[in-house]
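Why do we bother with a discrete structure alphabet at all? Because it lets us treat a fold like text: something you can write down, compare, and reason about line by line. To make this less abstract, here is a complete entry for Alanine--glyoxylate aminotransferase. Read it the way you would read a sentence in a foreign language you are learning: slowly, and without expecting to understand everything at once.
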Amino acid sequence: MATSLLRVPPPQGLLRPLAVPERLLLGPGPSNVPPRILAAGGRQLLGHMHPEVLQVMDEIKAGIQYAFQTQNPLTLAISGTGHCAMEAALLNLLEHGDTVLVAVNGMWGQRAADIARRLGMLGTAGQHRWASPGDGHLPLCFMQGLVRHKPSVLFITHGESSTGVLQPLEGLGKLCHRHGCLLLVDAVASLGGAPIFMDQQEIDVLYSGSQKVLNAPPGSAPISFSKQAREKMLRRKTKTPSFYLDMGWLANYWGCDGEPRRYHHTAPINSFFSLREGLAMLAELGLESSWERHRANCAQLCKGLRDLGLELFVKEEKARLPTITTVRVPEGYDWKDIVAFLMDNHAIEITGGLGPSVGKVLRIGLMGCNSTSGNVDRVLRALRDALRCCRRSRL
Ligand code: PMP
């Protein structure tokens, strides 16, 4: 018998069946995937340039245009997660000599500032406070930042999943355009859960993710570019520093440039099937019903949390992100104990804080099909149980 040349044996873990327990995912994402979307992702593959796949891509494009409320022809899904869309937006919009102004109101502004800094194009990562919607005043720092730094792009996060704050955008697009600046908005955590109107609000680049309200697995990220954003990209003197995320190539692959489609990369076809179904479910429900569903269940959750004696992290109701609720870690408890208790005893995921909110809050997500009154009752019951069992005599 020939002696084997293999020195690395087959890993024992891979010789056991895949283990995926049932869990209710009520953290800040991903959320549970309903059977229809799961089934779509499990369909047999087709070639990535087959007409049926190109048709699915066209339907995704139309679904994103609906979800974003935009008519932009340059609308597609990035083959990657929300971060990938964030990088795609910044890499394609900016080139040497540009300045980006980043509004930092939590973790996602910090991340955008990090990416911009790596590109060597950060104007300032100005901290800004949330302004009341409808009060007619945008934070003064926006105005000052636009005047002082003359940025080409202003980045802002609509739904700050690290703090649970919803950022009003009214008037911001107009203000940016008056100063010759493009408005770039992250709606990963808010899309489908809170109103956003890309065209009416004059947003130039908007992106989101698949795994939150859209209830698809992570791995594809809707993005759209306005005419002005597209023109800025066409004026580039240098090539986009990433081939994979080059919007010229992606526009062609997604049939947005009127040219015959050329191979760019092998798209994650099954992720696109799932995303298509997530967008279809949103279209069937209707954006307004979806916003109302998230509003109502978030309100029920907030009332229940208060009834448990807990303190909401975001004081003003209008400033609360309807998809992710932040609640202060109560005195006498360690957030890690509560999170672990819910997982071990109730098979529910909630999480602690992120970035600036680490150690201060618990985050509870109710997104898409997970946003139900029944799930609110379930997580409140589990929390009541945790508050009874997890108190530490001395921290
Ligand atoms: N932006 C926001 C507001 C988010 O909540 C997230 C994900 N938590 C991201 C960006 C990044 O998305 P992903 O994890 O899919 O890369």
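What the structure line is telling us, in plain words: Residues 131-136 have pLDDT under 50 and may be disordered. The pocket of 4'-deoxy-4'-aminopyridoxal-5'-phosphate is lined by residues 28-29, 81-83, 108, 157, 159, 161, 186, 188-189, 209, 218 (CB under 6 Å).
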